[in-house]
Amino acid sequence: MVARTASALTFAALFGVAAAAAQQSDVPVFRAGTELVDLYVTATDRNGRLVPDLLQEDFVIVDEGQVQEIVLFENEVRPITVVIMLDTSASMTPSLDLLMAGAEQFIIRMLPDDRARVGAFNDKIQILPEEFIGDRDALIRDLDRLQFGNPTRLYDAIGASIEALSGLDGRKVVLVFTDGEDTQNEIGWRDVLEMAQVEEVMIYTIGLESDYFNGVRRVRSRPDRRLRTFAEETGGGYFELEDTDDLGPTFTRVAQELHSQYVLAFVPPTRDGEVHEIDVRVTRRGTTARARRSYIAPGS
Fold first, then answer.
1. Euclidean distance between CA atoms 260 and 296, whole angstroms
2. Fold observed for domain 80-258
3. pLDDT digits (tens, 9 = 90+) for 89-127
4. Alpha-carbon distance 262 to 4, whole Å?
5. Are 107 and 139 in contact (CB under 8 A)?
6. For 67-96, what is each residue's pLDDT tens digit?
7. 3-state helix/strand/coil string of the chain
8. For 55-78, what is the mean pLDDT?
9. Measured between alpha carbons, how far is residue 40 from residues 73, 123, 141, 228 in Å?
10. Residue 76: CA atoms inside 13 Å, Cβ hemisphere, count?
11. What is the pLDDT of residue 35?
12. What is the pLDDT confidence band of residue 211, given thresholds at 50, 70 and 90?
């Protein structure tokens, strides 16, 4: 949902949230009747390094051109629920071992309260196991169960990942890796963005340029140009690589970012049920904030 009710009792009544899930998401409790828009913010310096010591007064939230009061500020680690979605189409065959090793690095760095599923896409879409789990050893074993194919159903795979996260509480993330463009889909990239907006899912994307033999000649693949759009619009991060040796450090960097984000929240100024553009800024010189660029206001 987009704006959550401050009262824990009201929240549970409306959405049937189990007590265990509420504890896992570590949702703060506010005065009854207050609805908040949560923003997960990554702050970096000019060199791309994470900035861990910002204060509430260092941030500014702008909603449709109007500065909003920040009513929640946290600089503590919150658990994540993530789908790790990997391209296992034919073009990735020479790099699959490095890809799986990179995904394993991300899983190893999951914290005790984090939950994940792993997936693969080609002409098929597969997500394992059936439920989100925190057992890192089991998730690493599931990497070996992922299947391979030929076309690249990139948009469908991200859409399926968002659907898997639908209805869950807390910080929801899709981490997708691909070395090519979407070549077969049932949903378009705009549909993917709309789904992410409605479900408040953050999309991290890793694109790899690679050379491979397609059965006729050697060709060079290029990452889908919408990968950057998905990341920028939802507050995730986009990484474009030219060497498979960079996969491990990049997956590690994503894990570090997700465990170093600030949490800000504000009360939506209107209840019009419309999409609002928002901008999160940092006043400290040389520091940049990255967060989602829109939200859907609650209806009246």
1. 25
2. Rossmann fold (3.40.50)
3. 888 888 889 999 999 999 999 999 999 999 999 999 999
4. 18
5. yes
6. 999 999 999 999 999 999 999 988 888 888
7. CCCEECCHHHHHHHHCCCHHHHHHHCCCCCCCCCEEEEEEEEEECCCCCECCCCCHHHEEEEECCEEECCCEEECCCCCEEEEEEEECCHHHHHHHHHHHHHHHHHHHCCCCCCEEEEEEECCCEEEEEEEEECCHHHHHHHHCCCCCCCCCCHHHHHHHHHHHHCCCCCEEEEEEEECCCCCCCCCCHHHHHHHHHHHCEEEEEEEECEEEECCCCEEEECCCCHHHHHHHHHCCCEEEECCHHHHHHHHHHHHHHHCCCEEEEECCCCCCCCEEEEEEEECCCCCEEECECEEECCCC
8. 96
9. 10, 33, 30, 18
10. 8
11. 86
12. low
The pLDDT tens digits of the residues spanning 168-193 come to: 999 999 999 998 888 889 999 999 99
Tell me the residue type at 267.
Answer: V
Architecture of the 37-77+261-300 domain: Sandwich (2.60)
The confidence score (pLDDT) of residue 214 equals 59
Would you state the structure tokens that stand for residue 131, as one six-digit string? 């439920």
Q: Domain ranges in the chain?
A: 37-77+261-300, 80-258
Closest CA to 237 of 265, 220, 210, 261: 261
Token reading at 141: 């074993």
Cβ-based neighbours of 282, under 8 Å, separated by 6 or more: 43, 54, 58, 59, 60, 288, 289
Q: How many other C-beta atoms are found inside a 10 Å radius of the C-beta of residue 242? A: 10
How far, in Å, CA of 189 to CA of 168, rounded?
A: 23
Q: Calculate ∠ Cα 203-289-34, nearest 5°.
A: 80
Residues 111/259, Cβ–Cβ less than 8 Å: yes
Q: How far apart are CA 206 and CA 251, in angstroms?
A: 9
Two tokens at 117?
A: 């599923």
